[in-house]
Structure formats: C-alpha cells, structure tokens
Amino acid sequence: MFSSIKAKLVLKAHDEATCKAMGYAEQGWFIQAVSEIEKYECLRDWLESGYEDRRHNAFEFYAKALRWFGFDWDEVESEFGECRELLDGEKIICNILYAETQIIPSYTRSKMDSLNTAFVKHYQALDAKMKKLIILSGFKERFERKTLNEILSECGVIAQEHYKANEGKLEKCGEILGYRVEILGKVCRLDVEGRFVRVLRKSLCEESREDLFLRVRERVQKSSHNGLAEKMGFVDFWRFKKGAEILSECESLEEWIGRGFYALGVRASEFFVGLSDVLFDEREEAMEVAKKYRNISRRCERFDGVIFVITQRRGKELVEFTSDYGVGIFNEMRQIHLDRREFRQKTREEVLRILGEKIKWHFVRNDGELRIWGKILGYKIKMYGKIFEFSTQGQLLQEVEVAEEGREKVRGLTQIAKGE
C-alpha cells in the first residue's frame, strides 16, 4: 500500500486540490514533503525517518494521504501490523463515535413560533443531537499502537458499553439503532452489540431520513432501465421494465409492496432492496425499512386480488359454440378485479365488509345477471389460504380451507378459473 500511495503523491505533487487536502497552504511545502517520502521503500523506514514539517510528522502525512486517496483495508491492516509500535492511534481514528437513533432531533421554525420560542426549541434540538456523540478522547490509551481492526474492535466495545449504559435509548432521540466511527476517512457502521456491519458512503453524522423509497423512485425514473436491469441480474428486460414502471407510479414503499409485484422469484420488497443496493449501496438500510411492511407483503401474497362470480351457466356449456380460448375471454366477465391497496392494514372484519360492499354493488349494477353467463348465484374469492363464499347481498356464507396440493375443496372455483 505504501508504494501505491507514494506513487500517487508523486503524480499529484503539483496538484492544488491535493495540496489543500493534505493540509498545506503553500504548494512548495507539499512538494518538499513528497520529495522526502519518495526516498523510502516501506512504511517502517518512513516512520522511523523522524520526518516532520510545519504541518505533519511522518505518520500524520501518510495517514492524511490514505484518507485522500483511499485505501484497501486489509492491505493497510497488514502494513500497520508490521510496525504497530510506531503507530499513533489518535491519527487513525476520528475522536467521535456517533449513535444512530430512531428520531433525528431537528427544528424548523413555524410562523406561529415567536423568536424566543424558536430559540428554545432550536437549542433543545441541538442539545438532543449532542447526546448522540460519544467523545473518544477519554479512551486515548485504548488506541495506542493499534492497527485498523484492533481500533475498530475497541470502538465496538465502547459502543456496546454505551448501549448498555443507556438501556438502548437516548432521551428525545428514541431507540439506538447502531453506531458509526470514522477510521482513516472510512465511516464504519457498527450494530448495537459493537460488531462491524459495513462501510458507509455517508459522512459520520449524516443521518438524513429522506425517504429512501422516494430517492430510489426518482433515480429509477431518470436512469437507463437497460443498465439497471443488467445490474439487478434480470435476463428478461421487459420484466424489470414492468416493475420499474409500476414502482415509478407509487407514492410510497407501502403502496409499492401493496401492488404485489412479483417477477421470477423476486418480490416487491426484494426488488426495492436490490435497487437500493445498486443505486445507493444501502442494502441494509433498505432491508430495515422493508421489514416494517412485512405484514403487508404477506397479506398481498395470500390475497388473490379477484372475486369470481358464480353464475347459472358453466364454462363447459359455452364450449359448444366457441373455443376454450373464447371461454377464457368470456371468463373476464365473471371476474371483479380488486386494488389490493384498499386492504392494507385492515382487519379481517374490515376486509370482509369491503368485499361485501363491492359484491352488493356489482350485483345491483348488473341487475343480478351477466350477459352470456346468466343469473348471478353468488361470489367467491381465495385469500389467506381459504375460499370465501358470499351471497349476492355480500354476506359471508362459508369459508373452506384450500387443499394442500393447491386445488380448492369447494367445487366451482377451479372450474371457473379454467373456464370449465
């Protein structure tokens, strides 16, 4: 890693942006520092050289370069392990551990708030935010002569201690969801037990709750569907395109999952998680958000979405003057298509009531009879693993379990579906 960083420094020795990023006010000072590090072949030799200028010592200069150019974690971990006695842990780690919480304290002044009220509320929000910061300077001895992984491990212990001491909650901030710590410019996320989860692209204290779904939707609307489909692993482009079009119409993740999208084993929630990963590298965040709507997803998976109309005539009676294909077309007349979004977060009684109202309206609108099919005798719908049968007035008559092999025990619905 040292050779790679050294080569980049030599290449950018006259670059103003790099000079400023490395903390030098004068280009000449930066060029001089680069010429010095160029003389050494390994990190140990550079650290033992005792180099120091008006801005950095040898280790500070190298740590700054790692932050600016980026680095491979494992390579630097190995490199630091070879000369740990020369390391200064304080220069590797940011001195703050940041707690992610359920509530982000903030205040936006309304027209009704006086100047004094606004000041008080703003101060209260700022005070609550400060509780999310754990200053690490008091743990200085824990980071002396430590490599990246060892420092990360120590931060995990501190995070775990903080979580237990606060019983998993912070006043005015709600439940603690995890922690962040910046190590050589990389923001690492830890769970509440102090275990490393992943490296984030966000800054240390950036915790915007801007709806992830809305960000995904906006990017999908503006991006090439071909490129996204390929990154998502869709072989059939049209399947992805259909999902992207439906998602673009939805106002919320709840609505998207409520649409019941499914394509080649990919459910609506998985489609959203995949897009979040490809577009923003926020797979874990998307999974956490999607968990909130798991019940909605399960409800949609078990909801047929179509009420079948039981009529006087059967499909087999129509085969005499039309084909099976024709019967299938006529069958559409015996189907009442439902918008499953209407049934989100509804109790069983509420679902049955809504279905009953739709059935009564359908019966009245058609005067109790369907063209070609004859008189309407009743209605059936498959949902939650059962067949529900209704009267023409929307009253529930019976509910019967669906057979394990997938064929209904109630005679009539299978035949209706097949046009028999």
How would you describe what is shown here?
- The protein is 47% helix and 17% strand.
- It is α+β, with helices and mostly antiparallel strands and 420 residues long.
- The chain has four domains: 2-84, no CATH class; 90-200, no CATH class; 212-300; 306-418, no CATH class.
- Strands 1, 2, 3, 4, 5 and 6 form a six-stranded antiparallel β-sheet that branches. Strands 9, 10, 11, 12, 13 and 14 form a six-stranded antiparallel β-sheet that branches.
- A hairpin with a 5-residue loop joins strand 5 and strand 6.
- It is elongated, with a radius of gyration of 32 Å.
- It starts with a helix and ends with a helix.
Fraction of residues in β-strands: 15-25%
The share of residues in helices is 40-55%
Label the overall shape.
elongated
Number of strands: 14
Structural domain tally: 4
Termini distance? 72 Å
The unreliable regions are: 321-327, 404-420
CA radius of gyration is 32 Å
Structural classification: alpha+beta
Q: Enumerate how many helices there are, as a single number.
A: 20
The main β sheet shows up as: 6 strands, antiparallel
Q: Compute the average pLDDT.
A: 78
